[in-house]
Design brief:
alpha+beta, 2,3-Dihydroxybiphenyl 1,2-Dioxygenase, domain 1, 4-stranded mixed β-sheet
Amino acid sequence: MWGKPPFFIGDNYAVDVKNLTAAREWYKEKLTLRESQTHREEDSGRPFVDLQISKDDETMISLVELPAGASSERRHVIFFTRNLDKAYQWFAGRGVVVEPPTTDSGGNRFFLFHDLEGNKIEVCIEPG
């Protein structure tokens, strides 16, 4: 229905999650990400999954399961898009909680969305 997602992952990121199984399914369903077939070990030894837009992508987002009772390390995760309005509608249309688009002091337009566990991720288009 939506085709390829209207965003790209510009750098590798790690996102802490309490429920790895639920988070994995959410990112796959809502963002149409797929599990990476690379086999690596997480430095922390915690369970994780690497997700990417397509099998040819070199950048990915890693969901890393938190130990019981541990707090999440809030990282500034940024996805990029060439068309902010299209990306906003795509996320909202898939039932993702999105905040209204805004512009920062440097002129960058962006919006934030929230994952299943409330982690905020920025979707940004840079001017020019």
